[in-house]
Write a structure and sequence with these properties.
By secondary structure, this protein is an alpha/beta fold. It has nine helices and eight strands. It has a single domain, classed as Rossmann fold.
């Protein structure tokens, strides 16, 4: 399924369906295909919007979690949205939290899946030697419980990013920013209904991270998905969408 990429000023985004806005924030290697099943399911009931985060377009100084959160703020302002349902995977969850902490009046609910913000195992000390395709394939497979979810197309995309020197630098800058920008002290201030949907087999933001989010965010609920890694909306879309639908139905209107 190919989605039309729309433009509004400097913003690029996908928008499908009608209803309350459901804004999806992707992670560091967040292809639009990551959200394909989610978009198809929820465009029947919501206006599903994916702003393309400028991971590689900001100056190196602004290539931070806060820089991306500012981009989301300006995008939501430009669209004139009020009371959005915000959903973020991995770095996208972290960006969503930073945005929400400053704009709780504009957010209705927040859903986090494999979110950074407390702790994550990134590419770590073994950041890929450029040109090592096999290494990139294995790292990409680690995102999932079932390594076959890491299709050749997905591996090629990650490989293309890390083999572009400037993009690789920006990925490292964002990963370091995510580690530095720990939200442990601030999460108690989030009063919105929060849904945590976590893969039990997530090795990047392990289960203990989900439990910590649950403990720190007052109005939160935690749902586990078994045999599932860091991107539940890709790996087990049926189960993920059912949990999310039930949560959103409780908070609509």
């Amino acid at each position: 399924m190919q989605y039309e990429i729309k433009h509004l000023g400097k913003f690029k985004f996908v928008e499908e369906g009608e209803g309350e806005p459901l804004v999806l924030l992707h992670g560091l290697f967040g292809a639009l295909s990551n959200f394909k099943d989610l978009v198809e399911h929820f465009k029947r009931t919501h206006k599903v919007v994916i702003p393309m985060l400028p991971l590689f377009d900001l100056s190196l100084l602004d290539t931070t979690v806060s820089g991306l959160a500012k981009h989301v703020q300006k995008f939501i302002e430009a669209k004139g949205f009020r009371k959005v349902h915000l959903l973020g995977n991995s770095l996208g969850g972290h960006v969503g939290l930073v945005y929400t902490l400053k704009h709780q009046d504009l957010v209705k609910t927040i859903t986090l899946t494999g979110s950074s913000g407390l702790f994550e195992n990134g590419m770590g000390e073994t950041y890929p030697k450029r040109g090592d395709y096999d290494f990139i394939r294995k790292k990409t497979e680690l995102t999932f419980y079932d390594p076959t979810v890491a299709t050749k197309e997905l591996v090629d995309e990650v490989y293309g990013i890390v083999n572009n020197r400037l993009k690789a630098l920006k990925i490292i800058a964002l990963a370091k920013s995510a580690i530095r920008h720990n939200l442990g002290e601030e999460l108690q201030d989030i009063k919105l209904p929060t849904c945590l949907i976590w893969g039990k087999n997530d090795t990047i933001t392990p289960p203990m991270v989900a439990e910590e989010f649950k403990k720190l965010i007052p109005n939160s609920e935690l749902h586990w998905i078994d045999k599932c890694g860091h991107a539940p909306m890709m790996e087990v879309p049926g189960e993920f969408n059912a949990i999310l639908e039930e949560f959103l139905n409780k908070h609509k209107g």
